[in-house]
Amino acid sequence: xxxxxxxxxxxxxxxxxxxxxxxxxxxxxxxxxxxxxxxxxxxxxxxxxxxxxxxxxxxxxxxxxxxxxxxxxxxxxxxxxxxxxxxxxxxxxxxxxxxxxxxxxxxxxxxxxxxxxxxxxxxxx
Length: 125
Hints:
The protein is α+β, with helices and mostly antiparallel strands. The protein has helices at residues 19-28, 52-56, 67-72; strands at 10-17, 46-49, 76-83, 87-89, 109-111, 119-122.
């Protein structure tokens, strides 16, 4: 994203999903056209958690995975490096991060809590 001015905000974050989606992400990268599969409470983007426990709730094995995953009830999660840039408070269903005050430059991501975020949402793939 060329609008990211704060490139020091690279974070290792977790993303949980079913095996089919994780295989797609691993092969092709994140794709916001699937946003909303689980939630859009902080915006229509890709969701990443600070703690693995949070993402584990969105990880599913069962019938969404391979036969081995089904048999062993395995769950899927990615640990990824995310350039979060400057973050703003997220809001339900927003398609993009809001603009920074007094500018036409958007924030780079949104969060669940600006003071102590545990969830980041990115809007550029």
